[in-house]
């Protein structure tokens, strides 16, 4: 089975829900015209990234009219949308929704909120506490958001729950000196994406945004990597565009026949060693619950 996947490398406007919703409508319409099966938008695609005190103003409940409209748009084209989700407890999460056949099939709340350098997410947002896979018409999937990927444990957890395709919405700013015409951060992301795809024999779809906020640029470079580590699609840096590539879902099976690392993983060993390490650091059981 082959799936046509679209990466919406967009330039959202900070804090302007209505304008950003219009961008989504436009790219979804373009996705339909290109016969896209799955269209992935970047991190916080509905709101922009450096929100700070604007977080409560742009947050959406999952039963909001905007989300319901996006649910309807997912009929005929599956969608990944980035937003600030407001929970029933009035907590705010950097979240990504997977929408399919007119319904929310999965919501991932970003687990790792960066607070170093130019990042300050945890001051304004609550942390997600779970990594889960979910069924889609393209197989078993997982969503991880940007910084989540910088912690190998999240990808490991997704792999151990059977993920065939890893979807990565991102808002990665351009950082690091250029080497040979390429930013260091771009080289790092490309290395991570290829390593995770090959090591865990899963497809990787990385969608990064473009544009500027508060003088910070976002570099784009969205890509799709096969389970064998082959780059199937690559977007230009700094350019807003709809990128469309074809992913062969049967490649997952072929890769796992030739690469048995995932089959041979000793989950019991990992669990026992993590328990030992946890007891060493938290002998009284007073760790973060």
UniProtKB/TrEMBL annotation:
One of its GO terms (biological process) is putrescine biosynthetic process from arginine. Keywords: Hydrolase. GO terms for molecular function: N-carbamoylputrescine amidase activity. InterPro entries: Aliph_Amidase/BUP (IPR050345), C-N_Hydrolase (IPR003010), C-N_Hydrolase_sf (IPR036526). Residues 3-249 form the CN hydrolase domain. SUPFAM superfamilies: Carbon-nitrogen hydrolase. This is Carbon-nitrogen hydrolase.
């Amino acid at each position: 089975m082959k799936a046509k996947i679209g990466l919406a490398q967009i330039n959202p406007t900070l804090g302007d829900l209505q304008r950003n919703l219009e961008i989504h409508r436009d790219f979804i319409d373009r996705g339909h015209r290109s016969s896209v099966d799955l269209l992935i938008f970047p991190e916080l695609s509905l709101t922009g990234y450096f929100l700070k005190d604007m977080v409560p103003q742009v947050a959406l409940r999952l039963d909001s009219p905007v989300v319901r409209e996006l649910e309807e748009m997912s009929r005929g084209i599956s969608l990944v949308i980035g937003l600030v989700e407001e929970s029933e407890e009035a907590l705010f999460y950097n979240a990504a929704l997977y929408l399919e056949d007119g319904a929310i099939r999965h919501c991932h709340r970003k687990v790792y909120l960066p607070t170093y350098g130019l990042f300050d997410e945890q001051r304004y947002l609550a942390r997600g506490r779970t990594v889960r896979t979910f069924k889609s018409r393209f197989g078993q999937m997982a969503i991880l958001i940007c910084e989540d990927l910088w912690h190998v444990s999240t990808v490991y957890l997704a792999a151990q729950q059977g993920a065939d395709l890893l979807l990565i919405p991102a808002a990665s700013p351009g950082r690091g000196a250029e080497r040979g015409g390429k930013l260091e951060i771009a080289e790092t992301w490309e290395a991570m994406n290829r390593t995770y795809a090959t090591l865990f024999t899963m497809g990787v779809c990385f969608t990064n945004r473009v544009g500027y906020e508060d003088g910070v640029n976002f570099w784009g470079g969205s890509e799709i990597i096969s389970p064998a580590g082959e780059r199937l699609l690559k977007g230009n840096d700094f350019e807003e565009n709809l990128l469309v590539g074809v992913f062969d879902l049967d490649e997952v099976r072929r890769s796992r026949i030739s690469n048995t690392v995932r089959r041979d993983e000793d989950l019991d060993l990992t669990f026992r060693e993590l328990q030992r390490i946890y007891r060493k650091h938290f002998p009284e059981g007073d760790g973060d619950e």
